[in-house]
Specification:
This protein is 20% helix and 25% strand. The chain is built from nine helices and 21 strands. It has helices spanning 44-50, 115-118, 187-190, 225-229, 259-265, 268-289, 301-304, 334-341, 356-367, and strands at 10-16, 21-25, 30-33, 36-39, 65-70, 73-78, 87-89, 98-102, 133-134, 151-153, 156-162, 168-174, 200-201, 205-206, 213-217, 238-242, 246-247, 293-296, 314-317, 320-326, 353-355. Strand 1 (10-16) and strand 2 form a beta hairpin. The longest helix is centred in the last third of the chain and has 22 residues, at 268-289. The radius of gyration is 26 Å and the shape is globular. The model has no long low-confidence stretch (mean pLDDT 89).
Length: 368
């Protein structure tokens, strides 16, 4: 166990302390010699092997699936021979349906999962034992992009997909957002005809298609991956937006600007000035979703307060009053925030699925 503490050896999981079974990563103890991998003589693994500390090594197969195009069709390859789940693999092209690649001999039942996990598992109106292919996006929001240009209706992004029965329809793929160009205070100076990619775009995250919780973050905040994957009832009912979606500043090369690049050129005072000039976009975005509660990142409050009245527990935006909490207060006020999160969604709604014929009507009405 002392050797296992060395930098070149990592115990990832103790499978059974009684039996001495461990999942380990000893990649740093090896090096490639052509087609062969050898153990480095001075490594922790070599010492363990030489002293008989390791009796047996088993290299687990990766749970991995890849699709390849062979003889005019998708062929799936995987290393595992069986698993206790029905497993479907999505081909690279979204025009193709997810296809079953594993049929379990003894399928895991929903009742075998812990209740907290069971409540998170999506349901589809299918019997996997009878279904070879299906379209998950037909019933549950999915983010994807394909060869067909997306269509925006009221700021909602739709893309055409093939449904389980083989027909086509438009499905909601993103809450999208209100076009910043109509609000931009700098577009006349730059003679823009549309939002330029050389201006920094700050992307948010959607965890629900009907969010009741809105996180507001600083455009230069680091991407919070842990929040993205966190299993939390508040997160799963939320949307995360920056208070400034576009930073209307073009760099000299007029090329795509990422957030890290923008940080070098845009000071905090400049960012505040941009916000004050373009705050209407933020206000309209908030009112579009009309959240039950707003969570503010610590470094957003001072900037927002320059345009919107903020007291100890409420922020007023265009005459609408919203309860708010600071992000670092979430655990302290978790029960209160959770109750608000479970209230009904009250923002703009659009159909999840729109037939090809209905979409033509939507487009026609939009152009009229």
């Amino acid at each position: 166990m002392n050797l296992a503490k060395n930098p070149d050896f990592e115990i990832e999981l103790c499978i059974s302390k009684k039996r001495g079974l461990y999942s380990v990563n000893c990649f740093e103890c090896t090096e490639d010699h052509g087609k062969n991998t050898v153990v480095i003589e001075s490594s922790s693994l070599r010492i363990m092997l030489d002293h008989g500390m390791i009796k047996l090594i088993y290299r687990p197969k990766n749970f991995f699936i890849v699709d390849k195009w062979k003889d005019g069709k998708n062929v799936f390859e995987h290393q595992f021979s069986s698993a206790p789940y029905y497993i479907y693999a999505q081909p690279y092209w979204i025009e193709d349906l997810a296809e079953k690649v594993n049929t379990p001999v003894h399928p895991v039942k929903l009742s075998q999962f812990p209740l907290a996990l069971r409540n998170r598992i999506p349901r589809v109106p299918l019997k996997f034992s009878e279904c070879q292919k299906f379209q998950i996006a037909e019933w549950h929001p999915c983010r994807f992009s394909g060869g067909v240009r997306e269509t925006y209706i009221n700021g909602f992004e739709y893309q055409p997909i093939v449904l389980t029965n083989g027909t086509k329809a438009f499905v909601y793929t993103s809450l999208g957002g209100i076009d910043f160009f109509d609000y931009c205070s700098e577009k006349y100076e730059y003679k823009c005809e549309a939002c330029s990619t050389s201006c920094c775009t700050v992307h948010g995250n959607e965890y629900s298609d009907k969010p009741t919780v809105m996180f507001v973050f600083h455009p230069f905040s680091n991407y919070d991956y842990e929040m993205c994957i966190k299993s939390d009832v508040i997160i799963r009912r939320s949307i995360r937006i920056p208070f400034l979606h576009k930073i209307p500043y073009k760099n000299r090369k007029d090329s795509y600007m990422i957030v890290d690049d923008a940080k070098k050129h845009v000071t905090e005072d400049m960012l505040t000035d941009f916000f004050l000039k373009n705050h209407q976009h933020f206000a309209d975005t908030v009112l579009r979703f009309n959240p039950q509660v707003i969570i503010l990142e610590e470094n957003t409050k001072d900037i927002l307060s320059q345009k919107y009245p903020i007291d100890k527990r409420h922020i007023t935006i265009k005459g609408n009053v919203f309860p708010y909490y600071m992000e670092d207060e979430m655990e302290e006020y978790r029960d209160e925030i959770t109750k608000l999160a479970f209230l009904p969604y009250r923002g703009i709604e659009m159909p999840y699925l729109i037939s090809m014929e209905e979409m033509e009507e939507y487009k026609k009405n939009a152009s009229d």
